[in-house]
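Worked example (supplementary).
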Amino acid sequence: MTATTTTMPPTPRASAPLVARESLWSRIRRGSLWISITTVAIMILLWEVIPQIGIVNRILFPTFSDTILGFGQLVSGGYWWEDLGKTLYAVAIAWVIGVTFGFVMGVALGISPFIRTAITPYAIAVQALPKVVLAPLLIGWLGFGSESKIALAVIICFFPVWIDTMVGLALPNANEFKLMQSLKASRWQVFTKLQLPSAVPMIMVGVKHALLLAFTGVLVAEILSASDGGLGKLAKEFASQLNMSLTYAVVLVVVIIAVALVSLADVVERRVVFWSEESRARKR
Amino acid sequence: MTRTEVIAQIAIDQSEKKRKKFSPYIVTVGLLPLILLAWWLATTVTKSVSPILLPTPESVVAAFPRVLSAMGFGDQVIRTLLEIAGGFVLGATVGFFLGVLLSSSNRLRTAYLPFLSALEAIPTVILAPLIIAWIGFGVEGKILQAAIACFYAVFITTLSGLGLAEPSAINLMRSLKASRWQVMTKVRIPTALPVIFGGLQLGATTAIIGAIVSEFIGSTGGLGYLMIRYRGGYDTAAYWVIIFLFLVIGLVVYLGIWYAERKIVFWRRTEITRPDLEKQ
Amino acid sequence: MTTMTQTAPLVRAEGVTKRFGSGEKEMVALSGLNLEVQEGEFLSLLGPSGCGKSTALNIMGGLLSATEGTITFSGEPMIEPRREIGMMFQQAVMFPWRTTLDNVLLPVEIFGEKKKDYIAKADELLGMVGIKDFRDSYPWQLSGGMQQRAALCRVLLHDPKLLLLDEPFGALDEFTREAMNQELLRLQAYSGSTAVLVTHNITEAVFMSDRIAVMSARPGRLVGILEVPFDRPRTPDLQTTNDFVKLVAEARRMLELQ
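After joint prediction of all chains, the assembly is encoded as:
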């Protein structure tokens, strides 16, 4: 059973930091920035030209300029602000609830190795179940309002926080526990001074992943139940009207928000776990 | 805080467990009837949960033969499995080769990584309406959606895994005048395999999600389509039967990849259980 | 065994300098190294950490290129690794997915030769270092010392003209290390290879070598060369003789002078 416990997959974020990110300056100096710029330019050119010369249907595949126009139309339209607000509101609420719930569960079930081992098969089952299957059910039960969105997003996003907290609390090694024992630390002191600080970098990974999953959950619910509004509803509506440039524009907005949220989370993470990057560098 | 250390720690925890008489797995097994009892109490006995959300256990059990023997049920199952498998194979293949490509050139990596990292943040479900508009309600669209969903996990784990080879191993290969291809196939890829399997595990899960969501939004068949139909008819018990089916599919995929990892990356487990030698 | 022949040296380094980084961060790892390695001899590079001895070895092996100066092997300039040169590192570098035998046969695969032709030789070498019973075991089933024995077999499989040894037994415990040194001397004599050993252990350097190149740190440079005249084969008893102790003291004095 050991191996089942151990194959709890890491989130892809967990391994991402191993790939060094280079500063803009070094990218300019090493010439790779030009490759990026050229690639983007060529992509945009193809995006613009291919539908125009009719290789693909321009209605289904709008050109770059169509998309920019659509973006302008969307942003100046005014009506979309409400949808944007609804989506962000639901993501924020769901994320806070999911993280809190996941953390509490992780602490409750992760503090003792005994309970952790006992609960692992259930954790794997919860992980293996694609939780979006509950989406239509939740919408049917809670109605088309923001409750069903939030409920789905919470169910999807609490999981990584739970698991990462549980695993994080198990991180300190035997010697570290022995040191605390030799100091006659209480159970509470072992938790607050050793286990929790050791778990923080891991928990932060889960918290960031949860943000992305909350966004996904909200979008799924919005796409499935059109009436409450939100970016997911907009994308689906525009797509079903074959108004593709506006659909592209909504997708673009979602991409921008997602990248912004994750970048923000990265900055916060680096502040909170300032020691982690350093210790990682030392281990390499 | 690497995965290896986590695993090693858990292994230590478990070996300590062996000394105790009371196995935690007794609790694991004991919890199952408790969960079923709670379900029964909440629905059949006290009726405190809406039957629209969670039907009684009896009705779900009764729904099993009805759902499984329904006309064309097998075709729907096969269709969904095909979508998942096709998407997974496509996404994982592209992710793996792109990871290999970017890992072999510093320039390409620094040029393209910023864009590809952005993919990590994007909720791929937003593409579902687009994909349906492009290629319609058929199987191909679901495969594409699943492939997009699982691509990133395999790509990033491949890329970072290929960078994990020890400098001394690379130096040994260089001292033998090994070609880049030899270094890749004989050192970098085997070293990366455990990490790549982590990506495959995650990618498979996301591929399943991608296929289901796409089926929910619009499909001419598949288990997701069936679920929407059952829900429309307020047949929640039948809906729950399919949820259990997805639990089984998820577990089979999860355990299947786990088993493949154990067989293929056979050296990894032993490495972990012998930490005394690993120090060398 | 001690080479006093007047033939051309196997390796010749002239004014070899290696700098890492540039500008403010520039670090001189090795400064103006002049050194000749004669065919058949056992030479040690002895010095504290940071004296550039590993850098010098990596340049000899073609893994690094010199910033200034030239280095030749058999009269030809070293610009890339050569297959007549075998290297051993502090880590055994045994791939966990290969059996011991397959690890030993790795060079055969890299060189694109037939594995079959070398199995007998690999078995013979494994037998000589006493781990033939473990030929089909995986590295994780071997102790650290056994792994280094296998690494030794791997490097000797192709009869390299030159062995470059970068503290190969540095990670082992003292007892295993001494046994491994014996093993190394025996196999080097058997194969007739030339050997260059990097070490920071004075006793080890004196015990193993025909000549010792003593180096100093920051910037790494050669302090002097110490001749070790003892006969071979050498036994551990040698270490208790007066002459041996005197040479060790001499090497220590050179290291402390700097």
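Two points are worth noting when inspecting this output. Chain B has one domain: 63-270. Confidence is low (pLDDT under 50) at residues 1-5, 270-280 of chain B.
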